[in-house]
Amino acid sequence: GAVVSQHPSRVICKSGTSVKIECRSLDFQATTMFWYRQFPKQSLMLMATSNEGSKATYEQGVEKDKFLINHASLTLSTLTVTSAHPEDSSFYICSARLGALYNEQFFGPGTRLTVL
Amino acid sequence: RKEVEQDPGPFNVPEGATVAFNCTYSNSASQSFFWYRQDCRKEPKLLMSVYSSGNEDGRFTAQLNRASQYISLLIRDSKLSDSATYLCVVSSGSARQLTFGSGTQLTVLP
Predict the structure, then answer these.
(1) Closest CA to B34 of B52, B47, B23
(2) CB A72 within 8 A of CB A51
(3) Could you tell me if A9 and A64 are in contact, meaning their C-beta atoms sit under 8 angstroms apart?
(4) What distance in Å separates the CA atoms of residue A75 and residue A52, rounded to the nearest whole number?
(5) Binding-face residues of A in 50-109 toward B, CB within 8 A
(6) Partners of residue A32 in chain B, C-beta under 8 Å
(7) Which residues of A touch B95 (CB under 8 A)?
(8) How far is the C-alpha of A114 from the C-alpha of A69, rounded, in Å?
(9) Whose CA is closest to B21, among B92, B89, B99, B98?
(10) Which one of A79, A116, B66, B110 is most buried, by most CB atoms within 10 A?
């Protein structure tokens, strides 16, 4: 199956700093990538849909100026959490889809962010 | 009302038992349906897609009832390795976005 990687897998940072998370599709080109957030004992919540070469579409309640998404190539999307606060501590997971006609999304291994 | 609702469990069953999970969804325009499993602190992995005609993959059987907006997963002869959280997932919208249920936790006991 298709492989999606994320980096870093774990990050601990001080409040007020910015953190960048990378999501890469390793063996396929992904026109669409998705960013999710999962708090403990809760399910995945879609944050935004990222399309290569265009602006991301954010879900209601997700601040686009706080969670900056860049999908500069068909194999890379980045999520930057700006001015992170403790309430941003969460498990961030990306996924990628082969193309518009495909339903299946392939998930990255996730990034665990802890903001002190 | 949540878009995708599941019984959170936990379900604790002995090895070899048969266990069934149920799920309902609110968006009648939903296009595709899936069951994912998620192990603790890991990403979700696709278990199987769900079709109206029902589909089976080994010990796993999934059913979809579009009229009732209801999805089920049956696990037969459960193994210790089946212990995980099972996520009911629905795809909808032009971008085919996935909406996840809150998951049902299963523990298979020796």
Answers:
(1) B47
(2) no
(3) no
(4) 9
(5) 57, 91, 93, 95, 97, 100, 103-105, 107-109
(6) 95
(7) 32, 49, 57
(8) 19
(9) B89
(10) A79
A111-115 and A10-13 beta bridge pairing: parallel
Q: What is the pLDDT of residues A6-28, one digit of tens each?
A: 999 999 999 999 999 999 999 88
E-assigned strands of A14-86? 19-25, 32-38, 45-51, 57-58, 67-73, 76-81
A107: its two tokens = 């998930």
CB-CB contact of A47 with A94 (8 Å): no
In angstroms, rounded to a whole number, what is the distance separating the alpha carbons of residues B110 and B108?
A: 7
Cα A51 to Cα A91: distance, rounded to the nearest angstrom: 22
The amino acid present at A10, given as its one-letter code, is R
For the record, the structure tokens of A25 come out as 């599709």
On whether the CB atoms of residues A90 and A113 are closer than 8 A, the answer is: yes
Name which of B86, B83, B62 is nearest B74 in CA terms.
B62
pLDDT tens sequence across B58-69: 999 999 999 999
User: What are the φ and ψ backbone dihedral angles of B20, each rounded to 5 degrees?
Assistant: -125, 135
Hunting for tokens 């209801």 — which residue is that? B70
Length of chain A: 116
